[in-house]
Amino acid sequence: MTGDDGTTGPNAARRDEAVVVPGSEAARRDEAAELLAALDAPQWRPPRVTPLDRRLAVDRDSVERGLASLVLTVIELLRQLMERQALRRVELGDLTDEQIERIGVTLMALEEQMTGLREHFGLAPEDLNLDLGPLGPLLPTD
User: Fold this and answer.
1) Please, what is the end-to-end C-alpha distance for the chain in angstroms?
2) Could you tell me if 139 and 129 are in contact, meaning their C-beta atoms sit under 8 angstroms apart?
3) CA distances from 118 to 30, 51, 137, 139 (A)
4) pLDDT on residue 108
5) C-alpha triplet 110, 128, 77: angle, nearest 5°
6) Which sign does the torsion angle of CA 79, 80, 83, 84 carry?
7) Residues 125, 74, 64: CA angle, nearest 5 degrees
8) Which residues have a Cβ under 8 Å from the Cβ of 30 and sit 6 or more positions away?
9) Cβ contacts of residue 1 below 8 Å, gap of 6+?
10) pLDDT value at position 109?
11) What values do phi and psi take at 10, rounded to 5?
12) Could you read off the pLDDT tens digit of each residue along the chain, which spans 142 residues?
């Protein structure tokens, strides 16, 4: 017999025949299939996935609430960082009384807006604090 690659003899490979290399993954699969056949076990086949199975069943309200929660979490994180920075600058004496007053009024207004937005979307302050696993919560709980 002559193979497609020009080799001759009983071990000549044809292009339409698969060559299984001993110890390869294909050989292990063949061994597993042979073992299953010997045990009269039904052969496992991966489930057929259609494009409709890949879609998520979500409703508009849950998507809106989830997105609002994410955006408000980022805003709350930035608000708390700005507040800490402002307190640090006040303690260092870097700001005039007018600047301190403006920063205080601005931070209070931002906190009021955040409260209103949380109420609008039905979120509690705890809903904005992501659990980062071993790192702990994203926002300080003090």
Assistant:
1) 82
2) yes
3) 58, 36, 19, 16
4) 92
5) 50
6) negative
7) 75
8) 20
9) 8, 9, 10, 12
10) 93
11) -70, -20
12) 555 555 555 555 555 555 656 666 666 667 777 766 767 666 666 666 665 545 656 677 777 888 888 899 899 889 889 999 999 999 999 889 999 999 999 999 999 999 999 999 888 888 888 887 888 878 777 6
**Two tokens, residue 120:** 């609008």
What residues contact 33, with CB distance under 8 A and at least 6 apart?
A: 43
How far apart, in whole angstroms, are the C-alpha atoms of residue 5 and residue 11? 12
Question: CB of 13 within 8 A of CB of 19?
Answer: yes
- Is residue 91 classed as helix, strand or coil in its secondary structure? helix
| The two structure tokens encoding residue 127 | 């809903």
Length of the chain counted residue by residue: 142
> What pLDDT is recorded for position 22?
65
pTM: 0.53
Alpha carbons 51 and 45: distance in angstroms, whole number: 18
What pLDDT does 105 receive? 94
Structure tokens at 71: 């955006």
3-state secondary structure of 137: strand
